[in-house]
Amino acid sequence: MELAGRIYFKNSLYAQAKETYEKYLKISINYDMFKDSLFVDCNAFTQLAECENVLGNYQNAEEYFAIADSLFTNFSQQGKYKYIHFLLLNKRGNNLIMLGERELAMECFERAAQIETGKNDERSKLITMNNQACLLLKEGCQEAYEQAYQIFLLICQEYEKLGLKKSQMYGTSKTNCAFCEMNLGKGTEGLKSINEGIAILESLGKTKDLNYFVALITRIGLLGMTDDLYNIEKYSLQLSDYVSGQLHDVFPYLTEKNRSAFFEKLTSWGTFLLPTLAEEYKTPVLLKALYNSILQTRGILLNSTLNIDRILRKSSNDEYKSLYNQYMEAKKRKIDYAIQEKLERKILEILPSQGDFLKDMSINVDSVREHLGYRDIAVEFLAVENVDDEDSCYYALTLKHNDSIPHIYKICSNIELRDICQQPLGTLYDKVWGTLSNELQGVSNVYFAVDGDFHKIPIEYYPDYEGKSLFDKKQCFRLSSTREIVKQKTIHPQNIKDVVIYGDIDYDYSENIADSVAVQDEVDYIEYVDSVDAERGALDLFLPLKGTKYEMEQITAILKKKGLTPICRRGEEATEESVKALSYNSPTWLHIGTHGFYSAEPVTYDENDEDEEHAEYQSTEENVLSKSAMVFAGANNTLLEGNSDSNHDGFLTAYEMSTLDLSKTDMVVMSACESGLGDIGSEGVFGLQRGVKKAGANSILMTLNKVNDHATTLFMVRFYQGLIDGLSKNRALLDAQEYLKNAEGGKWNDMKYWASFVLLDGLN
Q1: Given this chain, do its domains 365-488 and 499-523+534-603+621-760 carry the same CATH topology?
Q2: Which CATH class is domain 1-106?
Q3: Does CATH place domain 365-488 in 3.30.420?
Q4: What b-and-e string marks burial along 729-756, b requiring 16 or more CB atoms within 10 Å of the CB?
Q5: 65-90 pLDDT, tens digit each
Q6: Among 32, 251, 558, 733, which residue's CB has the most CB atoms within a 10 Å radius?
Q7: What is the pTM of this model?
């Protein structure tokens, strides 16, 4: 097994090498076979650390490097393997640089410099010099680039004297020279250096390391300085293919957590440099490459998880289904992360025989165009970070049936967007849709996907200067990605089999009657808020929502006229557990009328969590998704009395929602405040909408702001009436908005009452 790990590593198959070394060490340690006196056992930690480093898991790599360092320190003190320890310390230092631990990195480099290796002292000296230069690059200023440049030049000269021009270190030093030359405005010299460095790395087969990817990025950056359009296009296609190939080759071997870390390494191409080039040159090659990049990578982590779920749920192998159910149950109960990971690795082993979870990456710009009608347009909004002033710029890529290529338009900067939102109505419409006015002529259906802060703004509803929104003028479909045009148009609409409705929830409920009374005593001091003025959002304590009772009764009556008898969960029956019980046998429609909230506070680590790896994972997934929640029976009792069991506390978080199986659910309606908000990242919104999507639901009706209880009731009742009358989800949404604007003498005509409701992926 150790030999297999070495072979995988030598052939740059780092994901497979990582998995093999983990098994090797686990067996060795569990069966008391590990010996710290054996080089092969100790070196396995070094190899595992290097694998984690290449895959972008720098914190994991540091943990393994630290163990290996300790083991090889003992060897060094015995006069053994000093050169190996010297190299290990330098690799550990470079990994610490990636973690931003500059001082710790310096300690490693200084310790390495003190080791008498017994090898060629000149090479050891060059490695130390390289590390010093890499630290300078992290400073990112002109003076530091110049200093680093001089060091890299000297390193290259010394390797040339030693006759080592074909070594990986020489090739990497050449690419580092090029990086400095690019930042120092030496475009011609940089191109010569980068081409030489890349050629060396390719001849040695070192094309899967981060250094190689950075080198490819650097080459295109240098070509941009010289306006060499032919080679910009040529190498942009090569880099796009490289990213796609890396995802295809590596993703199938990585756990969900590791997929996230690996993908993060590759995002700079599609989210910064490629959009910048496409907007500047606007050539067919670059525009198609950019649109394809967005289609392949937007939501790739969520999509991968969903596809794995669908593949295994539909598997004819009962053993595989059982394994997957065990894994999902472990996530739901928050069982030890090591157990979750073990189950997930077993799933990855059997997955290739069941289906390709990356099949959606084959959807490209031509696929989308072929699925567009003659009066359709697809729009992908893209937030591109501007490294000069740290402000994002927003672009729109448009595509129509007769377009041979996508078109790109600059919309605004992030700062301008904030200013626009404070200006008179019509300003935002003019900036967003006005910019696309020529493209929108003759269009009836607009399919669009948003990015960045556009996730928080109902851009489809903002009116022009005459008071008409795009949603008034055309059918607008807000999508997770315009990839959905291809995916959902191949799916036949579901028949409505069953509906579950939550409302009129008893937030004071407690299994202990005395506790319930105590809660009621606390609530009495709060001034009574009528449904007309109440909001469905977070308070110190959660007040009853009268509107949800009427909402439930009216929707039930509407459905019964069509022969549908919904299951209604109200009062003390509307528990968090009852929602979780819907998993694996979820209804066609799920309606939840309650309080909802999103906390914008940053995620904090649990300093008492002994499992550091689990704590790190939680910070990027569980904790982030736990910042959004919907409120169920007993929540007030938790606030007053405390409840250590998060599975039964009356709060259904986005993370808990994500562990359910709602794959049979066509639509989830979250009739609550801020149910569409969350932390925004490269994968979109990490909040309730991600939780619901991750659970497998098709479309979501959600809110982007706090909503009024009574206005929400009027809106929701009309929305369901439209659906039962045969309107599409989109048309029913428009009808409900128009109804609310004019209801009760126009009392709810203000945008804040009707524009918060957005429909995601409601194509059918």
Answers
A1: no
A2: mainly alpha
A3: yes
A4: bbebbbbbbebbbebeeeebeeeebbbb
A5: 999 999 999 888 888 888 889 889 98
A6: 733
A7: 0.86
